[in-house]
Amino acid sequence: MRAVYRPQEEPTDERDCLACDILAGRQESPGGAIYENDYWAVEHSVSPVLLAGFLIVKPKRHCEQIADLTLDEMEAFGQVLHDTTNALTRVLRPEKVYVCSFGEMGKHIHFYVIPRTSDMPASGREVLRLMFEGRWACSDEEAEEVAVRVKAEMEKVASRPTE
Known about the structure:
The protein is built from four helices and five strands, in the order αβββαββαα. The chain has helices at about 20-25, 70-90, 125-130, 140-160; strands spanning about 35, 40-45, 55-60, 95-100, 110-115. It has a five-stranded antiparallel sheet with strand order 1-2-3-5-4. It is globular and about 40 Å long. The chain starts with 17 loop residues before the first helix and ends with a helix.
């Protein structure tokens, strides 16, 4: 079983940052990297896994404010988010995919990509509450299986010619 990350206090820079630790290979997410480009990385959330398919999209450089992203990073973000949500939708067939960003405990900007399936409430607030209470917690192995499938879908998208 993978080690569970528990921040001591609020991270203040990349030396005490879960996102940077994962990017540097000091921590591992189930299934490893799903996708990377020059600016962004997509991975499954780490242990304890709150929901199979709960993905994290984050910049590869340590950045704590959305306003500090470069124009190149912002332009690349749209395509990454598009491809990530489409791949996740093809794999899990959720009713909806939520995307949100909260960054108080982990200062490194990151975006949650959360599939809401038909057996979950049709309320983003309720989904978040129940998810963080562990209602849909799963094993690392279940998360890894989803991550591998999403990665395969994203590789299909990357190999298609652009229009």
